[in-house]
Amino acid sequence: KTTEMLAEKMPLTQRKEELKKMAAAYEGKQAPQIELQEQRALYHLMPPAGWLNDPNGLCWYKGRYHVFFQYSPFTPQGGMKMWGHYSSPDLLHYEYHGIAIAPDEAYDKDGVYSGSAICRGDKLYVFYTGNVKEEGDHDYILSGRGANVIRMESEDGIHFEKKTCILTNEDYPEECTCHVRDPKLYVGEDGAYRMVLGARLKEEKGAVLLYRSEDLLHFRLEGMYTTQEAFGYMWECPDIFEMEGHKILAVCPQGVERGSERYQNIYQSGYYVKDMDELTEWDMGFDFYAPQTFEAPDGRRILIGWAGVPDAGYDSNPMEEGWQHCLTVPRELTWHNGKIYQYPVRELTKLREGEWMPDNTGRVTIPGKCGEIIAEGIRTEQGAVYMDSGCVIKWDKGYVTLSFQDETGAGRSVRNAWVSKVESIRILVDVSVLEVYINHGEVVMTSRFFMKQPDMDVCFEGRAERLEFYRIGGRICETFSSDWGGVD
Ligand code: FRU
């Protein structure tokens, strides 16, 4: 609320740079607190203060990876959205650049919403949704909200200029409500640019709009993707890419009925392969939404998600630490057995700092709150990994459950997943978040997890050909020192 109030009082022209400065000053003030934040993740990206949601603008540009994200710096409950920014040469060491894009024009005055990045020639272009809340009921779906596509450009990947309004509500097809957002750009097979946008149709159906452009300035509607029967009323954050010749359309449907085995969260996130018969969910845990993919310079397709879900109804952290949410680790996507597998990018094994051996009952204490558990060649049909006081990952043949029996789950209970047979498990633990990878990423489960003990207490029940326990050390972003944010 504070940001909104301050921003509303500020004339738009003056807002330019003001919000960025305010955020930097605030982050600078918060920075010394970081060392005291007991729940703060160390190798999952999260800003120095406030609220984070979707990853945005993921790309490799001029020798660095860029990870932007939906950021609301002034309160952990969220509010006016901007783009925060990290960059990294290697996905292991990150630099934090603060606010990259702030809302300072009439066409984005209520938020710089999600979007993506694309290189053209020597320049980097980003496209995002400029959110405008009109007077009155801006939650009314047929009017009251401006959903503009805005473009900005950069020559260094850090400083962005020349906001250009590319599309406004008038440009969207008649069937659409005013909920159209999250431009994702890519190069089509014919070499022309394409942009997909998530949409809510008037008939209460989620859809994706497809636009074509030769110059990244003029866009022409080329088509629309949707399912025959409505699958949710809105599709957010679309993405299109290929995996070994298979065309993938990823979307985040809202309004899908909750099932006991599938679609267990309030909003979904998954992908369709070509003929769009069924959505495959990216992640079966409690905390995952709005992922985005990009191509690394070596051709790998990498996905980063938001380790959170909007309106989830359970806590993401003790709010008194002044932050909420983080991103998942970057995951490499590969195509096996007709589906996409996700696995932490191989760079991450460099974060390991020593191996710990279990006793003969399978019990081990890894010092600190960051670690990795690997079981390869699982030989028992049933088994479990117990962590801290209340977190259990169990399998029974191909049936996997992730459950919390006490406050380590902060309101989370149980999530299920199926594979044909559990053969391997890898668990990444980072202070207050965990990612479980079954069978090298056939199924993934991401969740917040609020460890009570100062060290990682783990017990592995079952037999496996190889068991490995690692400590993971070090913060991946060291720029949160007390002198960060040296803006007056
Ligand atoms: C998804 C989303 C996007 C939107 C952004 C706003 O979580 O709702 O559709 O652009 O968040 O922060």
TrEMBL record:
GO molecular function: hydrolase activity
EC number: 3.2.1.26
SUPFAM superfamilies, A to Z: Arabinanase/levansucrase/invertase, Concanavalin A-like lectins/glucanases
Pfam family, one: Glyco_hydro_32N
Record family assignment: Belongs to the glycosyl hydrolase 32 family.
Protein name: Sucrose-6-phosphate hydrolase
Glycosyl hydrolase family 32 N-terminal domain segment(s): 44-344
Organism domain of life: Bacteria
Pathway it works in: Glycan biosynthesis; sucrose metabolism
EC main group: hydrolase
